[in-house]
Design brief:
Elements lengths: L1 H17 L17 E7 L4 E12 L2 E6 L12 E5 L5 E12 L7 E3 L4 E8 L2 E7 L1 H10 L8 H14 L17 H24 L3 H19 L4 H15 L17 H6 L6
Parallel strand pairs: 1-8
Antiparallel strand pairs: 1-4, 2-3, 2-5, 5-6, 5-7
Length: 275
């Protein structure tokens, strides 16, 4: 009788060792012990089935050979889990694909340029990485004028852009609409702000939303490339878009107000990093 009583728990423990026993959650990958795993979310609106590429940074320069298997993608909610083997060190994570726009949910927008996140160091085990328009701006800042992607440059760019958008961490915090943490909701609202800005640009230009988003991102990236920061004009446009998005019925982020985008003077005063 005792053997029958304990057969269930023992079987479950055996199954747990093989495949995982118990309720819910994402299935584990068949990653080898000692692997470096990058798990995250790609969002400008969650990117559905977007291709994920991971490149090593060697001697301050982004490599061209993939660390991960070709053809790996996000799921329909923008989540991804990538095994890059034994590699440890700085990486660039790049995602391309399409998403449902937050402000105009009847429109599927295709990214004309991939979004990237640059990380100063990934290690053995699990590493969380968000890939968003804000990390793309940080990547642009870190690579400004052909600068070396040193640990200091990468960390400064990520912390400066986090401060710019009044966020705590733009890499290890994920932009989850309706998430359980305030930082997740605020990050999702920041992405919604950029969608609102693109929709406002579309109304003025008459362009498709894909092109309007490209124009909006290109303008901000150019400002960072030339001046190392966003112009006050762009900051004012972002804050106006953030207010509009926050008070609309399209705001599903869970945040009451989109994060305030700081001017260069405000970012510098709050210690957001060197320019």
């Amino acid at each position: 009788m005792k053997m029958i009583r304990y057969a269930g728990p023992v079987l479950c423990l055996a199954m747990l060792a093989l495949t995982g026993c118990g309720g819910g959650g994402t299935s584990s990958t068949s990653s080898a012990a000692g692997s470096t795993i990058i798990t995250g979310l790609a969002s400008k609106g969650p990117i559905n089935k977007g291709e994920v590429k991971v490149f090593a940074v060697v001697d301050g320069v982004e490599g061209t050979e993939l660390l991960n298997k070709p053809g790996q993608t996000t799921d329909d909610k923008g989540n991804f889990t990538i095994d890059i083997g034994a590699y440890k060190g700085p990486v660039v994570v790049e995602v391309s694909g399409s998403f449902t726009d937050e402000v105009d949910p009847t429109t599927t927008v295709t990214l004309q340029n991939p979004l990237r996140a640059v990380v100063s160091g990934v290690t053995t085990g699990s590493n969380t990485v968000a890939v968003t328009p804000v990390t793309e701006l940080a990547c642009k800042k870190a690579k400004r004028a052909g600068a070396k992607l040193t640990k200091a440059a990468i960390d400064d760019a990520n912390s400066t852009m986090a401060a710019k958008f009044s966020l705590t961490d733009i890499v290890s915090t994920l932009p989850v609409a309706g998430g359980s943490k305030s930082g997740e909701k605020e990050y999702a609202a920041a992405c919604g702000t950029i969608s609102q800005l693109a929709n406002n640009s579309k109304k003025v230009s008459g362009k498709r939303l894909d092109d309007a988003l490209t124009d909006v991102m290109s303008k901000m990236e150019s400002e960072i490339e030339v001046h190392g920061d966003l112009s006050d004009d762009s900051v004012n446009e972002l804050n106006a878009a953030g207010t509009e998005f926050s008070h609309s019925d399209k705001n599903k982020s869970g945040a009451t107000e989109a994060p305030h985008v700081e001017t260069e003077a405000e970012t510098h005063t709050h210690g957001g990093g060197a320019k």
